[in-house]
Amino acid sequence: MEGQGMTIKDTPEEWEIRATDTPFVGNKTSVRTDDVVMPDGSVVRRDYQVHPGSVAVLALDGQDRVLLIRQYRHPVRQKLWEIPAGLLDIPGENPLHAAQRELYEEAHVKAEDWRVLTDVYTTPGGCDEAIRIFLARNLSEADGERFVVEDEEADMEHARVPVDELVRGVLAGELHNNCLVVGVLSLVAARASGGLDGLRPAGAPWPARPFEV
């Protein structure tokens, strides 16, 4: 089926659920099992992770470098280069406030200009996590004491890397973090299609994770 004449846009829809269970509840996430009615009337069991949602920050400095952090990720047994990110710990929390907090805590940096770069579902076949990736510009050192880190973050490294070098690393298969890959390629695409000032404002609606203004 060709796309001519179609509106290519994701749309809300919810199929009937005959039964649901939560066999595992963790500290931040849980696993849910739903019995879902298919279009032909059959009922199929679907297991998925329930996630509070996340924010990430592509912080771009005046020399066209992206602020990166590097930390150990146990599920994939690798140290990954990433952009600052964190969970939406408080239901209904304003994602911009959460993103500003993460940039401060992980990099001790603040930004004057904030835009929404892109919104994504990380793995919609098995998890309901939604991430809003912000573009932050006009960076400066944050005021006050540095945030005390722990666990994997205690081993965190920092770097500022040119955008072109990150694009090369993504396409070469050397960089794998979802938010970094999506954020950097979205930045390049935005520049090529109208410029960064055409991005959505930082407070743009986010149906996947409604929030308080």
TrEMBL record:
Keyword Hydrolase: yes
Pfam family, any one: NUDIX
Domain of life: Bacteria
Domain annotation Nudix hydrolase: ranges: 49-183
Molecular function, one GO term: hydrolase activity
Record SUPFAM superfamilies: Nudix (SSF55811)
Record's protein name: NUDIX hydrolase
